From TrEMBL:
The keyword DNA-binding applies. The lineage of its organism: Bacteria, Pseudomonadati, Pseudomonadota, Alphaproteobacteria, Hyphomicrobiales. InterPro entries: DNA-bd_HTH_TetR-type_CS, Homeodomain-like_sf, HTH-type_Tx_Regulator, HTH_TetR. This is TetR/AcrR family transcriptional regulator. It comes from Phyllobacterium endophyticum. Keywords: DNA-binding. One of its GO terms (molecular function) is DNA binding.
Amino acid sequence: MVQRAENARERFEAAAFKLFGEQGYAATTVPDIAENAGLTERTFYRYFPDKREVLFWRATDHQISIRNEIASATCSRHPLAMVAHAFKSVAPFIDGHRPIVKLRQALISSHSDLQERELMKLHALASAIDLTLQQRGIRPSPARVIAEVGSAIWKVALENWRSDENEASFANHLDRVLAEFQTEFHLLV
């Protein structure tokens, strides 16, 4: 019987980010990550198909949190405001893991294969938002537009958060991007 290593995903994640920060993404190998985590390479592959996925494994959990927030939001909110507010459910994680999230975003910015995976993640997020909005009774076309705009708000807020030298919260950046969008396009959200 295969025994599960306690907190293996988190241990691999911590080891990977430590090594990515020290020696770079390209120079870091799966054996390096496994050794640094104090686990085996074989165990690594039980949790991740490759080193790239260490950067993206939390996306599904975040997506579930966001969907749950949208599903339980009050009906009086504009759907776009509902989506932006739902993103705040992930803000404590982002703010609480600032060095790792900043390094992750820097790595994605500088590696095309990671950019491709990030786009796939954003597409999955938009699809999940779209489905949840439709389940709330919003027609398919408007739901899709709101989901795509919401994903763009997420992306821009995260980029602004990463480059903010004052280290304002992610929720603050979400509010700012939504407010700028509303002002620019004269929307009452």
